[in-house]
Amino acid sequence: MSEFALHPQLAKDTFEITDWPLCRVLRMNDTTYPWLILVPRRRECREITDLLQAERHRLMDEISQASDALQRECNPTKVNIGALGNMVPQLHIHVIGRFSGDPAWPKPVWGFQPAQPFEQAEREREATRWQQLLASPQAQ
Question: Where do the TM regions start and end (predicted)?
Fold first, then answer.
């Protein structure tokens, strides 16, 4: 895991929750959606196929763990999972809780409306909340 660095756009748009065996887990700084982002801590990784086979399996396990946590905590209508990379080339996976009444439903969240960032105290509470939720045995 040498020389991992988070892409500047991801660093700007998110805040850190925790590190799992493969991925750094981030929270999108947007109060509108429960939105986690998983970033494999691998240098110059752009595509899932850039990961070793065992890492791809680990990635799927970590995506499932994030999705399960969102479902348990937020009970969304649907969990959207995506790895687009059109704007940010560093491999990252969005895990987003969607609700039939959310502002973008049923369309994608990207570009629908500007992010509604957390205020600092709220952001700290949100980070602590997700750290606790993702520290369960399922997250290991």
Answer: none
pLDDT in tens, 33-65: 999 999 999 998 999 999 999 999 999 999 999
> Given a cut of 70, is residue 140 above it in pLDDT?
no
Q: What are the residue ranges spanned by the domains of the chain?
A: 1-104
Cβ neighbours of 95 (radius 10 Å): 24
102-114: pLDDT as tens digits: 999 999 998 889 9
Closest CA to 106 of 134, 78, 73: 78
Kindly report the pTM of this predicted structure. 0.93
CA–CA–CA angle 30, 34, 37 (5° rounding): 80
- Contact by Cβ (8 Å): 105, 99: yes
Q: Are 117 and 29 in contact (CB under 8 A)?
A: yes
* 91 CB neighbour count, 10 Å cutoff: 22
